[in-house]
Prior knowledge:
This protein is mainly beta. The chain has helices at residues 37-42, 461-466, 526-537; strands spanning 20-25, 31-36, 59-62, 69-73, 78-82, 91-92, 101-104, 116-117, 122-125, 136-139, 144-147, 153-156, 177-180, 189-193, 198-202, 232-235, 241-245, 250-254, 277-280, 285-289, 294-298, 318-321, 328-332, 337-341, 365-368, 375-379, 384-388, 412-416, 420-424, 428-430, 450-452, 474-480, 483-489, 495-498, 506-513, 519-525. It is 4% helix and 31% strand.
Amino acid sequence: MADRKITDLTEISALSADDVLHIIDFNPSARNTKITLANFFSFIPSNTTFGSTSTPCDVTIYGSNMNANQTFTSANDTHTFNCNTQFTSFVSIGDATTFNSLVFNHWGNYNITGEINAASANVIVGTTGVGNGKKLEVYGDTGHIKTDGDQHVELSGQLNVIANSVIVGNNTVGQDIKAWGEDGIATDWVWWKKATSTLEVANPTQIVANSSGALYVDGASQLGCEATGSDLKIIGSGGYNIYFDSAANKWTQNVANTEWAGDFHFGNGGLGNQYDMTLYGVSGNVFWDGSATQMAVNGGFNANGIVEVGQAGAGFNTTINGSNGARGLFWNSATDVLTANVAGTDGMIVHGSLVTGQDTVEANVTFHTAGTGEALTFNGTDKEMTIKLNSTEGVTMECNVHLGATDSTSNGLHMYGPNLMRVQGTPIGIGDSNINFAYASGSALLEDTMVFQVASAPPSIAAVTGTTNHTQAYLYGKADSGSCSVWVMDSNGVEVRQASHEDGEWVHYERVPQADGKVLNRKINMLKLARALEQVTGEDLVTEWTE
């Protein structure tokens, strides 16, 4: 065969897979070989470039049929996939500076699968325009995102994180939003309706709830608006509810139990608005009259704490009515007078200390009885207490009594100072209630007299002599020979009767206790002693007369 140059060979305009190319193989040595066109494109061990920067070219790669192809159009830098395309690794589309686009045109029933990194580029599935929508399905491990080409997106699985704002609709168009709940429940959803601008929530057992089964709003919540208002009704179980009527500006509660943990304001004091309020109980109510600024308690009232009525510097009248007529307590703030109109013999009972006036402010106190003119009065100006009674019994004090008063010329018991006491006119009795202050005939009372009853427990000689306290002396009444006499005893137990002569002439002088327990009695015949002294002295010591 004659040698010819390659440039002298015949040129063809189309290729087939069985066409043979001339190849110089350098492995292991330079030699002439051949390769078919099919095998040549099955493996190219180097980077492949179609076109050049100066002369770009369109590239089309066909699949098993004419519709299954990939085309790169150099005029608009578009890469079109018309085929079943699978990606076995990450695919980056464009970059941060060029922002190239990749268009996937769905053909037939084929889908696009794989992983796409579209952080720096736009990804367009289908083409814009009416009737050009295409299906898109993106599958994950437990769910998928699917479009049907008719403005419908289906999310199957759990949506964990939305890192940016989510907008449904726009300011001029708007869209409905509906979130379905449990499978198989036709009325289990949350639905925002754009036409009526309402949010509807339906659930056969629970409306809106967190993990504890309650509606939870973290932040401000407003229902209705100030211009139009809206009714609000919260339905509980067993027919209980809370209802606000926006047309009547009325709030109605039909609840079993209401608790307020904090301040509660009814009405609007800042705007001068006044409203009535009634709190009903089992057998009474508390009524606040907003127009009269008055509260009425129809039932029992128990205040376990400080109760303040009125305001310092302004004051207010206070009336506590009783069960019958005008009985009660009445405080007149204009005159600073408290009037008690009580009924029954018990009157007013104070369990505890009762203080009238202050230490630095004088005040009068008067207690009236049922008798005309009878009263117990303390004059705060004169510092004087007066008792006026129609009864002859006077005042009974079943306690210790300490008296301190100025000297007076009236009858009775007086303390006057310093450290002096006078009993004028009135007898003083030492004994029990059986003391008789009248003479035997009962025609007159004793005056300026001290009366001793027989002591029920007179001083004991043994007890007196046995004590170490020898700073006391004793004066008492003691029965002797069928009559009561006044006796004295010193701190040594020596007892002497203070009485008239005994046996006409004899007078007891002393009784001296002895070591053997007996008592030595000593008496003196005073008449014989006087007669003997007359004989010795010549003086008249005894004078006798008859009345």
